[in-house]
Predict the structure.
Amino acid sequence: MANILVIDDEPGIRTVLRDIFEDENYSVFDAGDGLLGLEILALETIHLVVLDVWLPGMGGIDVLKKIKHDYPDIEVIIISGHANIDLAVKAVKYGAFDFLEKPLSLDKILTLARNAIAMNTLKTENKQLKSSFLAEDEMIGESEPMLKIRQTIEQSAGSDAKVLITGDNGTGKELVAREIHRKSARTSHPFIEVNCAAIPDTLIESELFGHEKGAFTGALSNRKGKFEIADGGTLFLDEVADMSLSAQAKVLRVIQEMRFERVGSETTETVDVRLVTATNKNIQKEIAEGRFREDLFFRINVVPIHVPQLSERKEDIPLLIKHFISLMRKSENVETIRFSDEAEEMLINHDWPGNVRELKNFVERVTIMSGEKIIDLETASGFLNAKEGNRKSSSNPLIAKFADMKLSEARDEFEKMLLLQKLEENEYNITRAAQSLGIYPSNLHGKIKKFGIEIKK
Ligand SMILES: Nc1ncnc2c1ncn2[C@@H]1O[C@H](COP(=O)(O)OP(=O)(O)OP(=O)(O)O)[C@@H](O)[C@H]1O
Ligand SMILES: [Mg+2]
């Protein structure tokens, strides 16, 4: 089952294409211009776009470029009148799958659509396969606690026992979850991650269990939830303690039997999913204070894995440093560098409050910026202190908040703060908030979803 988006300004063409695609059991969306088409792409999972090359407003080529930039795996079939055939040829150069001339041969467009969708499926599968072999995912560490974690993973690899991973920020919980999946018999099936903290309460049910077309405003098509997508594989519920109590109740009902209904549907779906969860919160405290259901805790905590802070396994630090340098060399093409013995000693004794993530960021920064082959104590502490010094002394409180982040993280954080501010100012009226931000309401909806902003009523 695939979703097709038709972008054409001629209503007649939209209707014809909708009819023939729907006859073949595809779900069809359509748009009369490029901007609307791009909005639909932001909100829906689309597998194929059929795009008229000659469009009013934003031209077909520009729409194509934007699609290929934002969603490189989505295939685009161009349709064009005889007069614009040169544009269609150009479109193929920009990454379109193929083009067809009007008047359209319905047989041809169906065959082409089938091939393009097959290509899209291949690309997605290929990506999934590749990501399961990434060196980036390799779990490094020979310390006592890491050996114990490996052992627990091996022991539970053959079973479908539910695992709860706990540990501070940046200790490597997600990596452990991926390792559990990789070592299990489910490794050739999907590993699906859900960040429970990022999904607003109103959407979590649909996100996890899916929905039927028309179940609520905005449910434009049938959509699988993460439980169904993970069928046969592993579902990783990250930040599980951040789920609301009502969401916890729903999940509790489902996980014992792995049976559920999509929102707005009567049909019961059955899936075969292994559940792995993680949290950086003290879950006993969450239970004691009434924020986490004890019965859910017992269900998900069959195999507990605690990932200790980096300062409690200092012997892993040199191994991790080496590992991160070699990752950088591959991705950034930088030269082999290493730390002097004194510098390494200093890094081993450092506290690393941000744990492995902080160490990784530090190594990346030094590798790219120092320009030295052997980083000595002075340079290394210079980089460490500069960072801490900056954080303390930044005279601009706005910047201080972002000082530790990469540009992409800072940009997202800023965008989220501004959206929250505007939403509050406008009493959570989406249309007015969007207006004051100068964006479309649907675009704001997309961002609210992306950032997991809760809409207060
Ligand atoms: N043992 C390890 N070996 C190699 N890399 C690691 C290891 N532990 C963590 N990392 C790397 O450190 C970074 C943070 O790890 P990860 O995202 O798994 O932490 P986390 O515990 O899920 O953090 P958070 O609580 O913030 O979600 C990632 O880039 C990860 O690849
Ligand atoms: Mg994590």
